[in-house]
Amino acid sequence: MSRVTKSTSAPQRRTQAERSQETRNKVCDATIQALVEYGYEQISTTLIAQKAQVSRGALTHQFPTRNDMLVAAFENLVNQWREGYPFGLDPETTRLTVDELIDGMWTNIFSDGRYIAAMELMLAARQNNELGHALRDILVTWIRKRDSITVRLVGGDSDDVEADLKIQLHLAVLRGIAMHQSFDSDPQTAKKLIDLWKKMARNA
């Protein structure tokens, strides 16, 4: 009778770099969630360490200051937007209708509760201090890339001023609806506003 031999190989240990990255990801995610729940002024490294379920020593090893933590969390979120739909699409090979663009931006960015966290940090970016400068640097780079891709995804020319203004209008409306949604008790209101905006944009 043949005997089945079980594998005795031990699970592969993670590298120090992998463990560090896991800690960074946990802290960034916890920071964004805390911004949604408590707001910018209430954020502290102690709170985030508890929320991320990491030691305060592990957190401060990765992010020596509160500002370092906030900047990293914002950059992590922006990178997710950049790589996701619709901004991660290749405008050389992909075209979206205005409806598809609006739906994509709303579903994947503005309707996500994390957008409120981003707004908290965008407001902080107005401050003329170290944190404000760091956040503005991320925003400027992101906005430049975002707007160029978005115009081209709907078949426009990135050098066309009017086409760029239309994109800015879409973003402004969606930003407003996102803020309205955070106060409105009726979850259907945002959908109705989005549907109305798509109808208006289609006829523009």
Average pLDDT rating: 90
What's the helix count?
A: 9
The global form is globular
Strand content: under 5%
Number of strands: 0
* Strand-pairing-aware structural class: mainly alpha
Q: Can you tell me the residue ranges where pLDDT is under 50 for at least 5 consecutive residues? A: none
Gyration radius from CA atoms, angstroms: 21 Å
Q: Share of helix among residues?
A: 55-70%
Largest sheet at a glance? none
The end-to-end distance, rounded to whole angstroms, is 79 Å
Series of H and E elements:
HHHHHHHHH
Write structural notes for this entry:
The structure is a single chain. The protein is an all-alpha fold. It has a domain at about 65-200. The protein has nine helices and no strands. Helix 4 (about 65-85) runs parallel beside helix 7 (about 130-155) and helix 8 (about 160-180) runs antiparallel to helix 9. It is globular, with a radius of gyration of 21 Å.
Give short descriptive properties of this protein:
about 200 residues, mainly alpha
